[in-house]
């Protein structure tokens, strides 16, 4: 690198290391199996592992987008996995009761129903946190546990199989040779970005996350913003739930969206959003979600044994988090090149999680 | 610590939490039948504690037990533990207090049963385990264990494949979709299958991954298997659902399931049997939830003081495509 300043600007960018790890994983896959990156045309659409990664990461991107906004206000939403299961179960139940499962009108009604219930449940979360003042982790824990039961109640403990072309398209359909799901996720991302970054909303959310009291005294309706992010998070989870159930044309109240809340929180953290609130990065979140899905796909593509795959994932995630931490990097740079100057540690003053 | 001040733990918080806890507590107890004690009028009273209702398999299991009890004239006190061991222990203690004649249950987990089983033994109430076992060292704590032999299921699947491929000259590439890592059915089915296919050195497992017993898991893993292995001849899935998920991946890859790739699964739930009858699967080793009639026979024998074997296998069979077509109309689950 000829210009050391530009080099430092690049390597200290908070998304530099996640990108390096992502590229590194793709490279490792290519070394293991040279055809990994190849993409072919099949039945009029693209086919290959990269396309799989895009399609499978779409639901996680959606859930993580909502989670980013919640975390930006200093909260957390543990109920998203259960919300995925509930919305998917409601949509599938409605479609399964239709005489013609392929009718577009019926599918749209099913989506509206699923989304509607999710919005109500999101509003419940919002009321618990913003109005009653329960800590977010506890407030959303209620729905995380109870919601799983609710989803099973809807499907009556069975796996509900449907046979609906239009609904299936949400999960496995194609648009312009690419999976439809990734376009839906992208559209949601652009919408959230436009609403938060082209208006003052993003700044207001960050301000509430920074200090809710001070924001309120400065004239921001903190409660209303907090309420809003939980509703948005629920809406994102609902659409993700549609994708998950459409992907396999069946609603499994027990397994749909299981542990996705943890993956979403991880994606948000890898993307550089502080868990303490007050700052968020939508692009980082999307990158984090892609990284997590690539990691999962790598395990299957390289046929890493199931007994060691969890350890493998943990090692990669710990590595990403460590090299991302300025404090950790500073130790290394100082030891190797003491003349490099102080790393801007003050960049992330609120990185620690409140007890 | 600044953040804490935003959400002070007020009295309201505690009240809401208490209400939520109370609600779950009530729901958990709601299913237990508390009335009456049995044994006085000659009819046998059976206290049964079920794991929960986590799958179609489990629901069919519950229905089978309830129907068989009615048919056998046994007074059944049914409890749903909702996947929680503490609920199940509570239910068993209730059964002991009510002085039922026989207690049967499907343990949620393997360990931690010694104390409550000792209480039942002291009360001279015989205990029968169904579907899942416990790891108690003292085998006298229960009379018998009625359930499927997962190793045998894997072996039956493997033996069918050995039979089918006996004339194969070249290598036959097998991919395996395992159940949840570490679970007994996953470990045992894998073991039984591997033992059986060892009979023919041409049969080789080229890839094996966990699909967590779910359709989404099976599909996601199969997608990568198909890309990483140009020649896959056989898929062995540890349950129907993973096989059903894999079907979609195989179709998307432009292959014909059941023809280009031979598919063998375990369980025989309705959707799986349908796929078998449609020619998309090739063979299913049954893991039957319909153990109600066998259980009621055992209850009568144990109550009469007859000795029973310590391990009893569920009556199970296997299905080929033709057998599935015949059996499908009468399938209960």
UniProtKB/TrEMBL annotation, chain A:
How does the record say this protein sits in the membrane? Answer: Multi-pass membrane protein
Q: Which domain of life is it from?
A: Bacteria
Alphabetically, the GO molecular function entries are: transmembrane transporter activity
Any GO CC annotation of this UniProt entry: plasma membrane
Q: Which InterPro entries does UniProt cross-reference here?
A: ABC_transp_permease
Question: Where in or outside the cell?
Answer: Cell membrane
**Transmembrane portions of the chain:** 15-32, 53-72, 103-124, 130-151, 172-194, 225-244, 256-275, 282-304, 310-328
Q: Which protein are we looking at?
A: Simple sugar transport system permease protein
Organism of provenance: Micromonospora chaiyaphumensis
**Upper lineage:** Bacteria, Bacillati, Actinomycetota, Actinomycetes, Micromonosporales
From TrEMBL, chain B:
MF terms from GO for this chain are: carbohydrate binding
Pfam families hit by this protein: Peripla_BP_4 (PF13407)
Q: Which GO terms describe its cellular component?
A: cell envelope
Q: Does the keyword Coiled coil apply?
A: no
Which positions carry the signal peptide feature in this UniProt record? Answer: 1-28
Write the record's keywords in alphabetical order, separated by commas: Signal
Presence of keyword Nucleotide-binding: no
Where found in the cell?
Cell envelope
Every Periplasmic binding protein domain range: 48-306
The record's Gene3D superfamilies line, in alphabetical order, gives: 3.40.50.2300
Give the family per the record.
Belongs to the bacterial solute-binding protein 2 family.
What protein name applies here?
Monosaccharide ABC transporter substrate-binding protein, CUT2 family
What is the organism field in this record?
Answer: Micromonospora chaiyaphumensis
């Amino acid at each position: 690198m000829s210009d050391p300043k530009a080099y430092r600007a690049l390597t200290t960018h908070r998304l530099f290391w996640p990108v390096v790890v992502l590229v590194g994983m793709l490279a490792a896959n290519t070394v293991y199996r040279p055809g990994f990156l190849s993409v072919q045309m099949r039945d009029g659409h693209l086919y290959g592992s990269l396309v799989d990664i895009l399609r499978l990461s779409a639901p996680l991107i959606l859930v993580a987008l909502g989670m980013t906004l919640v975390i930006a206000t200093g909260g957390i939403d543990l109920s998203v996995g259960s919300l995925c299961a509930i919305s998917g179960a409601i949509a599938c139940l409605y479609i399964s009761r239709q005489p013609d499962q392929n009718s577009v009108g019926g599918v749209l009604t099913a989506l509206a129903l699923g989304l509607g219930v999710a919005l109500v449940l999101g509003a419940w979360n919002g009321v618990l946190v913003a109005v009653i003042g329960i800590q977010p982790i506890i407030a959303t824990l209620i729905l995380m546990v109870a919601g799983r039961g609710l989803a099973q109640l809807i499907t009556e403990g069975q796996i509900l199989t449907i046979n609906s072309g239009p609904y299936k398209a949400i999960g496995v359909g194609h648009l312009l040779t690419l999976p439809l799901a990734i376009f839906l996720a992208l559209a949601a991302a652009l919408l959230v970005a436009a609403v938060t970054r082209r208006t003052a909303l993003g700044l207001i959310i960050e301000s509430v996350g920074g200090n809710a009291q001070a924001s309120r005294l400065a004239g921001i309706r903190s409660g209303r913003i907090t309420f809003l992010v939980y509703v948005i998070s629920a809406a994102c989870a609902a659409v993700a739930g549609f994708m998950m159930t459409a992907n396999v044309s069946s609603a499994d109240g027990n397994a749909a969206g299981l542990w996705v809340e943890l993956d979403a929180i991880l994606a948000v953290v890898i993307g550089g959003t502080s868990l303490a609130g007050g700052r968020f990065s939508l692009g980082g979140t999307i990158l984090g979600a892609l990284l997590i899905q690539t990691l999962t796909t790598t395990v299957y593509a390289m046929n890493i044994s199931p007994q060691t795959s969890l350890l493998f994932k943990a090692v990669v995630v710990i590595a990403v988090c460590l090299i991302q931490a300025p404090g950790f990097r500073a130790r290394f740079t100082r030891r190797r090149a003491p003349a490099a100057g102080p790393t801007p540690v003050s960049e992330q003053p609120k990185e620690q999680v409140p007890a | 610590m600044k953040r804490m001040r935003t959400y002070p733990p007020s009295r309201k918080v505690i009240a809401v939490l208490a209400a939520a806890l109370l609600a779950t507590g009530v729901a958990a107890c709601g299913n237990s039948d508390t009335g009456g004690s049995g044994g006085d009028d000659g009819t046998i009273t059976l206290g049964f504690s079920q794991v929960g209702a986590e799958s179609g398999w489990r629901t069919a299991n519950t229905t089978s037990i309830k129907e068989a009890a009615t048919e056998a004239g046994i007074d059944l006190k049914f409890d749903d533990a909702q996947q929680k061991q503490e609920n199940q222990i509570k239910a068993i203690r209730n059964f002991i207090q009510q002085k039922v004649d026989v207690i049967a249950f499907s343990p949620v987990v393997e360990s931690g049963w010694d104390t409550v089983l000792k209480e039942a033994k002291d009360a001279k109430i015989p205990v029968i385990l169904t579907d899942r076992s416990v790891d108690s060292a003292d085998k006298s704590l229960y009379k018998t264990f009625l359930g499927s032999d997962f190793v045998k299921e894997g072996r039956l699947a493997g033996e069918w494949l050995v039979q089918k491929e006996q004339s194969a000259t070249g290598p036959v590439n097998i991919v395996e979709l395992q159940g949840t890592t570490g679970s007994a059915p996953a470990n045992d089915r894998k073991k039984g299958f591997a033992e059986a296919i060892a009979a023919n050195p041409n049969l080789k497992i080229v890839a094996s991954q966990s699909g967590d017993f779910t359709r989404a898991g099976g599909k996601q893993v199969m997608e990568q298997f198909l890309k990483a292995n140009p020649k896959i001849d056989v898929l062995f899935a540890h349950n129907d659902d993973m096989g059903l998920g894999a079907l979609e991946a195989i179709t998307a890859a432009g292959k014909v399931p059941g023809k280009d790739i031979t598919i063998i699964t375990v369980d025989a739930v309705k959707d799986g049997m349908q796929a078998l009858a449609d020619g998309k699967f090739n063979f299913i080793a049954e893991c039957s939830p319909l153990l109600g009639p066998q259980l009621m026979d055992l209850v009568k024998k144990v109550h009469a003081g007859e000795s029973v074997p310590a391990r009893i296998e569920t009556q199970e069979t296997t299905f080929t495509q033709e057998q599935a077509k015949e059996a499908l109309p009468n399938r209960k689950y």
